Amino acid sequence: VAASPRPHVVLVASPGAGHLIPMAELARRLVAHHGLAATLVTFTDLSAPNAHPTVLSSLSATQVSTVALPAVPLDDLPADARIETVLWELIGRSIPHLRALLRDISSTASLAALVPDLFGSPVLPLAAELGVPAYVFFPSNTTALALMRSTVELNDGAASGEYRDLPDVLRLPGGVLLRREDYADGFQNSKEPAYARLIEEGRRYRAADGFLVNTFDEMELGNPEEIKQAVEQSTFPPVYPVGPLIRPSSDEDGASACLEWLDSQPTGSVVFLSFGSAGALSVEQTAELADGLEDSGHRFLWVVRMPSLDAINFALFTGHRSDRDDPLAWLPEGFVERTSGRGLAVAAWVPQVRVLSHPATAAFVSHCGWNSTLESVASGVPMVAWPLYAEQSMNAVLLSENVGVALRPRATRADGLIAREAIAAAVRELMDGGEKGRAVRLRAGELQQAAVRACAPEGSSWQMLQEVAGKWKAAALGRQKQ
Ligand code: UDP
């Protein structure tokens, strides 16, 4: 007798390397460890060409299917539309294509669940229409989710135009204290259209059956009882920490000039600097960072991107760089020559998990994107927090003040820049083993162990995913019997 096909989960990854990479890993684990079949849905538009092809080709060796939905028109959106708006519109307008795909899949298999990511709330009504569970994949941490929840709950019953501002200081479950300037983008001011969009989005999340969050217990400090209580009293669906979901280094391209360069550096000697898929510094800040690195006297590998006044560069996000762009041309005169031998500046997309897990790499100056953070922690590499956009400021607070795995130089100059002295001091503190530097390094080592434990069989994240997959399979079986 032929075995009936496995229940099938469909994951929908919005554009952006930071969404696609952990969702691909989630799909892989659901298939490899938890008895499900999976399709990972992506979008033809804005598909982040840097990460997209390699992530998808690495999945071809697994049993995860991949489908890119056809392009939809977006040219009516204003040229300066925020990235979040573009993503919501893209996904909303793609729903008919997704519906057709789901009908197709359910003609041969039993649908187990729909899993859109944080920008995919337009997908949730489709799950209700088809009668399947819906879980939102949240690629950041539970603190970021708690900020969303607090904002929505503060505005329950309020209509657009009457929304209330969050307080200047917010205490989140677990004891994280956030100041207004560290709130994620869009949460600072209730008068801004972005605030209203976030509330609408957050309200739609309530239609989900749960959140799968890319984190693990030890990354979420604080009193576990308090966190548990807050979750129980929440008006939001339950939270399942299932991370860290990190791309295996073997999936990344192993042939790269920066890996070759790292091979020739002493163990534990190199500071790695990268600001994610789309982070950009101003021309002046780029120069200040270069000076600070030079002053520190340490070895470095720096992924340099085109300077921009916007902390997030849309062209970088979608990977549509112009061939004429040469970010290295913006480094200070003579910098490359003066640091040659001990420093390497590259403009290319680097295999970041391989770089972080390389024995030569000792510290990471990072924009605190949550994937980069988890990759650093999983390699036991301490960080210098340099937040730029999205929820990175709050991640920087969490990492430097609560988790204790990062140092955070501050922008104390009158022009708002982080000064070369502060940069050199943070790098030296970490690399030369000052008291704070040693504490942060120790913590990185502890978290590395905890990350391994969380994802091993019987570990907390493995168990969470097992529990959720069990619910999905039971529901699929129930529907089959009807
Ligand atoms: N990344 C990479 N090479 C690069 C830049 C980024 O492999 O040159 C990967 C990085 O390892 C991470 C993802 O892209 O997995 C970026 O996600 P993150 O959440 O750190 O930041 P975002 O780009 O979403 O702001």
Automatic annotation (TrEMBL):
GO terms for molecular function: UDP-glycosyltransferase activity. The keyword Glycoprotein does not apply. InterPro entries: UDP_glucos_trans, UDP_glycos_trans_CS. Its EC number is 2.4.1.-. Gene3D superfamilies: Glycogen Phosphorylase B (3.40.50.2000). Pfam families: UDPGT (PF00201). It comes from the Eukaryota. Keywords: Glycosyltransferase, Signal, Transferase. PROSITE patterns: UDPGT. Belongs to the UDP-glycosyltransferase family. This is Glycosyltransferase.
